[in-house]
UniProtKB/TrEMBL annotation:
It comes from the Bacteria. This is Elongation factor 4. It is a peripheral membrane protein. The gene is lepA. It comes from Marinitoga piezophila (strain DSM 14283 / JCM 11233 / KA3). One of its GO terms (molecular function) is translation elongation factor activity.
């Protein structure tokens, strides 16, 4: 153990800019571990992460690099989650490092999220090494990329490195620069200090309980030690400590400057929160590390069992997911339309989607997901302040003093030619306020806006990509709650209010959204043997209406007496489909109707 020879780094890169390839190349060059194991390690990750090309857990790897100065350095590379839903987790992973490589694809240029993450790194006092990647590509535009790094991030690109993770060119130089430019962790504490360790991630293992991913700032931790998590003062006895090689490898101890894991019989990740500080239970430090916060869900949606009998199964599935996902919240709720289910809180839409997919795949449960909404706040006339997680909680107009909605600072980087189009959408359709624009290299700009979170979270990303032919990128960050003129719209199907379809709208969009919603529902709800009116009600009156005409439905009619197996299959399919339907009064409403609000644009 020689902390002078440790370097803890992150690689900040946009998806597809070559982070995985570069890390693979580094592993190969350093021969410090079996390359194949690394792949297995990556393959161990959730399928969903794999398929979507995003990382949710902060996977670390330790490599040994014999440098030109004759010393062998230990470099810990901490991978960071790659999505705006997980900004807090990114900031905590960065807090575990002294430096970061800013990796930019020379054929793509700097993307908005990369800028945001680099700022997070700068806020955490990290030393940044800019590196332009994929220089082997014929359309690599190194000079322009360097200019963008200077313009967008405001750091000098004079000392930037030029690398190709693919050919290996420049990778050794990069490792040498990491050794030279990124400080050893020694200035932040020594092994003589009291124990002070940052939890930068945690994973639940069904045999061993919670595995804490940690960076030790001060002191030493070993098996048998009594430790304490500072936010909740819970104490545990350490069962095992070790490093990521990249597979978990047991060691005698972990000391100041090192990155590794701690297992201490902790039952769920909620008790080992990202950003919390671990200290000794017998000789604790006074002050935890800065930066800890409890992450709060920003998006809520209802999850109901596809078949009502499966309520208990759904609860078990959510309980299990929660063991490994501290950010997920859920509370039982009952809806007249959907029966018993749960109101769930998520960090964002991606988080919601991952949870939905895991329930369906890992637990094989069909679920009904209701339209997500952002969290609102309201002040009532009696002075009470409430949070609104669900349109049904929206107070009656006569009780209501003021409503507030979350706003974000939105940054978009785009080629100049799409600036007008994007500006139009953000200002005219998304209630955004333009703040400023500045140059980002040649023929690109970065635009800053302030926009309600609810306006950009649902379909804005796709709109932006369509307008800019895929070239623009965005990032956003919560800036607070602002007073807003919001109303609740109730949907009536066959004259019965269906709360699960109600939504909250800004007054300026009230009529447009209500009209689109009733039209969309008309398409999504199948015809019945009687006519069904669909109405939208707000401010005490009906403001939009559509009608589903009566129709006699007969599935078998389509088969024209064809062979029996085909008929059977069709019937079977219907049965499957029905699971996701809900009977409301006399009307059957399919699952996708509950998501109609997401599809009205
Ligand atoms: P990640 O999403 O940042 O981890 O990116 P990957 O490492 O998966 O790379 C994305 C794509 O870019 C893959 O098709 C790689 O083969 C390719 N790629 C990565 N590095 C280089 C490079 O240096 N040169 C070239 N030509 N292609 C690269």
């Amino acid at each position: 153990y020689n902390p002078e020879l440790i370097r803890n780094i992150s690689i900040i890169a946009h998806i597809d800019h070559g982070k995985t390839t570069l890390v693979d190349r580094i592993l190969e060059i350093t021969k410090s571990i079996d390359n194949r194991k690394m792949h297995d390690q990556y393959l161990d990750m959730m399928d969903i992460e794999q398929e979507r090309g995003i990382t949710i857990k902060a996977q670390p790897v330790k490599i040994m690099y014999p440098a030109k100065d004759g010393n062998t350095y230990e470099i810990n590379i901490i991978d960071t989650p790659g999505h705006v839903d997980f900004t807090y987790e990114v900031s905590r992973s960065l807090a575990a490092c002294e430096g970061a490589v800013l990796l930019v694809d020379a054929s793509q240029g700097v993307e908005a999220q990369t800028v945001a993450n680099t700022y997070l790194a700068i806020e955490n006092d990290l030393e940044i090494i800019p590196a332009v990647n994929k220089i082997d590509l014929p359309n690599a535009n190194v000079e322009e990329t360097l200019a963008e790094i200077e313009d967008l991030i405001g750091i000098s690109a004079d000392d930037a490195l030029k690398v190709s993770g693919k050919t290996g060119e420049g990778v050794e130089e990069l490792l040498e620069e990491i050794i030279k430019r990124i400080p050893a962790p020694t200035s932040k504490g020594t092994s003589e200090d009291k124990l002070k360790a940052l939890i930068f991630d945690a994973k639940y293992d069904k045999y061993r309980g919670v595995i804490i991913y940690t960076r030790i700032y001060g002191g030493t931790v070993k098996t048998g030690d009594k430790i304490m998590t500072m936010s909740n003062k819970e104490t545990y006895e350490v069962v095992e400590v070790g490093i990521f090689h990249p597979e978990m490898q047991k060691t005698d101890s972990l000391s100041a400057g090192e990155v590794g894991y701690i297992i201490a019989g902790i039952k769920e990740v909620e008790l080992a929160r990202v950003g919390d500080t671990i200290t000794s239970a017998t000789d604790p430090i006074d002050e935890p590390l800065p930066g800890y916060k409890e992450v709060k869900p920003m998006v809520y949606a209802g999850i109901y069992p596809g078949v009502p009998d499966y309520y208990e199964e759904l609860r078990k599935a959510l309980d299990k997911l929660k063991l490994n996902d501290a950010a997920l919240t859920f509370n039982p709720e009952h809806s007249p339309a959907l029966g018993f289910g749960f109101r769930c809180g998520f960090l964002g839409l991606l988080h919601m989607d991952v949870v939905r997919e895991r329930i369906e795949r890992e637990f094989e449960l069909a679920i009904i997901l209701t339209a997500p909404n952002v969290v609102y706040k309201a002040k009532l006339k009696n002075g009470e302040e409430i949070e609104i997680h669900d349109p049904t909680q929206f107070p009656d107009q006569d009780l209501l003093e003021e409503v507030y909605e979350p706003y974000v600072k939105l940054d978009i980087i785009t080629p100049t030619e799409y600036m007008g189009g994007l500006m139009g959408v953000v200002q005219n359709e998304k209630r955004g306020e333009f703040v400023s624009v500045s140059n980002a290299g040649k023929d690109r700009v970065v635009m800053h806006f302030e926009v309600p979170l609810g306006e950009i979270i649902f379909d804005f990303f796709d709109r932006m990509k369509a307008i800019s032919r895929g070239y623009a990128s965005m990032d956003y960050e919560l800036i607070g709650f602002r007073k807003s003129d919001l109303l609740k719209v109730t949907i009536l199907v066959n004259r019965e209010p269906v709360e699960a379809l109600s939504f909250i709208a800004h007054r300026s969009k009230l009529y447009e959204m209500s009209k689109k919603m009733v039209e969309k529902l008309k398409d999504l709800i199948p015809k019945h043997q009687f006519e069904i009116p669909i109405q939208a009600k707000a401010d005490g009156r009906i403001i939009a209406r559509s009608t589903i005409k009566a129709y006699r439905k007969d599935v078998l009619a389509k088969c024209y007496g064809g062979d029996i197996t085909r008929k059977m299959k069709l019937l079977e399919k219907q049965k499957e489909g029905k699971k996701r339907m809900r009977q409301i009064g006399r009307v059957t409403i399919p699952q996708n109707a509950f998501l109609a609000i997401l599809k009205i644009n």
